[in-house]
């Protein structure tokens, strides 16, 4: 068959007699090189954009739906002693489960079908989002609701870990443009949901008098809960529809020749792959190496982790700093302007972080703006530590009365949140792109290390989130 415009060669389907011959001619050196030069396909690119959105929608990271719905969850926990620490408990349950799940799915990524993992994960996530959507119409006691949210968070965390490892590996095999648009999709969904929340907040508090705002603050942010409930219904209703649409898009993706020839062939020797799929995909590429055993995969993962430890530590630290203050501490920052409603201010701060996160990831669409050096990325990561004391200098609610905050400007606080999001998104993207780049990362032995490096970065993100959520208890205690 003819070559693509990028020089990728496709071969006719082999007969049963020469299948074994093709495999026998493959050696380790050949399999270290990309099987083909992947051309840019706009439809596939947009599919990975939406898969990136779906990956973050259940909150596999500093995410919108569960984090931005925090005001709704808190409104249902009025009267519960767990209300003040709910965000920390939820983040800890979600991220600790994510660490264990992500570790398992990362180590077993070479033995599992990426396509099947994506399908099953989206189905489970859609089911739990639907349950939370229904919960917005049901009023119950705070304790059962608290347990329900934690239970849902744990299952969504495990499913999200399965989904993310599969998408990370597939996007890395397709190359930098697909990886970059995937991480941009992760941030874009935050902007959309945050904007919906902001609009809902504006509608609900429009025309509120200074007296009503003062009463809201005096009651520890306890209102009637109507605005929060309506916003949550929109969040989770739209989320369910989006996840269902993404599932359909993924099913379309798995049938595309480009996907089969790059990602699909890695499933050929895995347990979930059918004989028919194996024969078809084997003919789409020039050669496919034998699959690794589970013990080989574990040793490869450990080898790539050790060689790329600076990248792994950097991305974990980036998200540790973020979760230490966002949203568990940042949601307790009140506006210094008495005419600004706290619900509206909180919604704006979510939008600021989400927009910054998206801009940080979008910057990486320009190769000249990408930092490839592991040590420079580490420096960027460590410098983000300064955001913790900076946020504490703002108008954070404290158990005991104190003097006026050092940072008393509401506009400056929103700009700080924009900077936190910007550095979070940029640091996340450059770690993914740099760690999985054969051209710029000499620590990779070859093409077979690309998807391992990408899934490891995803795993260390969850580790950083878990550490940050635990650190948030300490930051909260220091207030």
Automatic annotation (TrEMBL):
Membrane topology: Multi-pass membrane protein
Main location: membrane
One cellular-component annotation, GO: plasma membrane
Keywords from the UniProt entry: Membrane, Transmembrane, Transmembrane helix, Transport
Endpoints of the signal sequence: none
Transmembrane segments: 46-67, 87-107, 119-139, 145-175, 187-206, 234-253, 309-329, 369-392, 412-438, 450-473
A Pfam family matched in the record: Nucleoside_tran
InterPro entries hit by this protein: Eqnu_transpt
Keyword presence, Zinc: no
Family: Belongs to the SLC29A/ENT transporter (TC 2.A.57) family.
The protein's name in its UniProt record: Major facilitator superfamily (MFS) profile domain-containing protein
Species, as recorded: Scleroderma citrinum Foug A
């Amino acid at each position: 068959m003819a070559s693509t415009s990028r020089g990728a060669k496709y071969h006719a389907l082999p007969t049963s007699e020469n299948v074994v011959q093709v495999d026998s001619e493959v050696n380790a050196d050949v399999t270290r090189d990309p099987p083909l030069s992947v051309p840019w396909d706009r439809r596939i690119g947009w599919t990975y954009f939406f898969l990136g959105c779906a990956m973050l929608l259940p909150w596999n990271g500093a995410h919108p739906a569960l984090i931005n719905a925090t005001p709704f969850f808190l409104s249902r926990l009025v009267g519960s002693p767990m209300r003040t620490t709910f965000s920390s408990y939820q983040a800890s349950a979600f991220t600790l489960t994510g660490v264990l799940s992500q570790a398992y799915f990362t180590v077993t990524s070479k033995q599992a079908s990426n396509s099947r993992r994506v399908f099953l994960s989206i189905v489970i996530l859609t089911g739990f989002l639907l349950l939370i959507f229904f919960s917005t119409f049901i009023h119950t006691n705070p304790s059962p609701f608290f347990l329900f949210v934690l239970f849902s968070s744990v299952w969504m965390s495990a499913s999200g870990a399965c989904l993310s490892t599969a998408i990370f590996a597939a996007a890395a095999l397709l190359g930098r443009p697909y990886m970059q648009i995937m991480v941009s999709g992760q941030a874009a969904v935050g902007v959309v949901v945050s904007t919906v929340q902001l609009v809902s907040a504006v509608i609900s508090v429009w025309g509120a008098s200074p007296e009503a705002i003062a009463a809201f603050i005096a009651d520890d942010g306890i209102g009637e809960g109507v605005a929060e409930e309506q916003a949550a219904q929109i969040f989770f209703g739209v989320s369910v529809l989006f996840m269902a649409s993404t599932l359909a898009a993924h099913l379309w993706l798995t049938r595309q020749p480009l996907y089969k020839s790059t990602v699909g062939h890695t499933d050929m020797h895995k347990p979930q792959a059918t004989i028919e799929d194996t024969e078809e995909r084997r003919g789409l590429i020039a050669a496919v190496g034998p699959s690794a055993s589970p013990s080989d995969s574990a040793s490869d993962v450990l080898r790539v982790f050790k060689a790329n430890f600076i990248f792994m530590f950097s991305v974990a630290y980036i998200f540790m700093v973020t979760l230490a203050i966002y949203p568990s501490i940042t949601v307790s920052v009140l506006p210094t302007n008495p005419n600004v409603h706290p619900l509206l201010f909180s919604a704006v701060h979510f939008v600021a972080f989400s927009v910054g996160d998206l801009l940080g990831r979008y910057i990486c669409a320009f190769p000249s703006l990408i930092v490839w050096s592991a040590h420079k990325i580490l420096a960027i990561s460590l410098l983000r530590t300064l955001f913790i004391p900076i946020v504490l200098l703002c108008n954070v609610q404290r158990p005991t009365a104190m003097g006026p905050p050092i940072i008393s400007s509401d506009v400056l606080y929103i700009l700080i949140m924009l900077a936190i999001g910007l550095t979070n998104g940029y640091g996340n993207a450059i770690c993914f792109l740099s760690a999985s780049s054969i051209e710029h990362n000499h620590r990779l032995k070859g093409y077979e290390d690309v998807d391992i490096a990408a899934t490891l970065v995803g795993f260390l993100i969850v580790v950083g989130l878990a550490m940050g959520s635990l650190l948030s208890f300490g930051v909260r205690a220091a207030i």
